[in-house]
Amino acid sequence: MKVESRKVSDSRVETVHIVRPNHLNAAGRLFGGMLMQWIDEVAALVAKRHTHTNVTTASVDNLSFLKGAYPGDSVVIIGQLVYVGRTSMDIKVDSYVESMDGTRTLINHAYLTVVALDQNDHPIPVPRLELTTEDEAVEWEEAKRRRELRKSL
Fold first, then answer.
1. How high is the pLDDT of residue 62?
2. With 90 as the cut, is the pLDDT of residue 120 above it?
3. Which domain range does residue 36 map to?
4. pLDDT > 90? residue 134
5. What is the CATH number of the domain that holds 128?
6. Angle at 93 between CA 89 and CA 96, to 5 degrees
7. Long-range CB contact pairs, 132-137, < 8 A, 24+
């Protein structure tokens, strides 16, 4: 039986949000919890595109808030697979503020682990990941190191 596989580019997701008044914290910046929700949604979409099944977030390895976003800012969120295990996937999600001229400034960097589920919410095997670029291979190796670190804790 042939093991199914897909490319990183097959499941890449990019979303755009406008920071509105209801997204703000008391300091007048984008509420971190709102950004976390958007990041989790992007990671789930990446995983669903790869597996064609339901998924659930298992963990967030890293969530680094680098800069704020403000009312009216366009926030671009890009997610892509960096590693697949037997039933889980590691997904890198980067968030940017995009200026009117298209320049993007990184505001958040996150890694999430998402698990594929069957109709009874039990983990199921996921398709393999085809790495087609050197950057994808580097991300794969970095994800392996993060997974080993998680296991050692």
1. 80
2. yes
3. 5-152
4. yes
5. 3.10.129.10
6. 175
7. 132/7, 132/8, 132/9, 133/8, 136/8, 136/82
